[in-house]
Amino acid sequence: MFREIVHIDEEKCNGCGLCVPACAEGAIQLINGKAKLIADNLCDGIGACLGHCPQGAILIEKRVADEFDKEAVAEHLHAAEKAAPSAPAPASACGCPSAAVQSFAPPKHAHGHGGGCPSAALRDFAPVSAAARADLAGERPSELRQWPVQMHLVPPTAPFLKGADLLLAADCVPFAHADFHRDILKGRALLIGCPKLDDGQAYLEKLTAMLRLNEIKSLTVAHMEVPCCSGLIQIAKRAIADSGKEVPLITIRIGIQGDVK
Fold first, then answer.
1. Domain co-membership, 126 together with 207
2. Do 33 and 98 fall within a single domain?
């Protein structure tokens, strides 16, 4: 099939190996001192490895390649794990109060979290009134309208996703862009994550499900200018294609000094 896939320029590659652990699927290995894609079907084409190459030797290209095979990846990783020490198991979100899915209503109509983790309960926030904004005397109110915001914690069936203008933001963006709430977040449901450190395939599958189930009006991707962050755009494009929905895609590129590129 004709699809996006990682390409490694062997002339630029210096064999540093930084890209190898960056590939969650184990598709890249050092062979004879050069990084190589060992099998097309192990590469998802999202490009989480891009920002780890100091030589700029890794690109995303479109060519005829075997389809990405999750079962083959699982078998490959399982075989690799046998020779490697087991890593500590990640902490479970079920006991963390901040992971509960919640929808916030105005205070007098606040809903309980249903006996689960309070911080993971789905919530929708009511907009702040004009009068309340005036009373803040210069203090800017938050434009956040839901909880949680981490991509890993928001279920595809979260009620605040229904008919929403959806914002998928790299988690560095709010720290870099001073007016993130006013310029980017306002009026949108928020999902945040890091394409460099998180599981891009899991993000792709969840975002695809969100688009299929919720009649999303638009999808905005806010990402940093560093190369690895462009992986969010690839995830968004593939999720739209896989969902079968016609969802307008908007991209916002933020510089490392906070300016909009």
1. yes
2. no
Residues with pLDDT less than 50, the chain? 85-95, 97-98, 104-115, 119
Residues 73, 113 within the same domain? no
- Tokens 């599981």: give the residue: 199
Looking up tokens 């928001």, which residue turns up?
A: 154
What pTM was estimated for this model as a whole? 0.59
What is d(CA 111, CA 113) in angstroms, rounded to the nearest whole number? 7
C-alpha 40, offset from chain centre: 23
Torsion, Cα 95 104 155 190, to 10 degrees, reads -110
Over residues 171-185, the pLDDT tens digits come to 999 999 999 999 999
- Alpha carbon 122 to its chain's center: 19
Alpha helices in 82-230 (DSSP H): 130-135, 173-176, 180, 200-214
Q: For 122-136, give the DSSP string.
A: EEEPPPPPHHHHHHT
Asked if omega into 148 is within 30° of 0 (cis), the reply is yes
Q: What angle do CA 254, 259, 188 make, to 5 degrees?
A: 55
Residues 99 and 123 both lie in one domain: yes
Residues 116 and 244 in one domain: yes
Residue that finishes a domain, picked among 57, 81, 105: 81
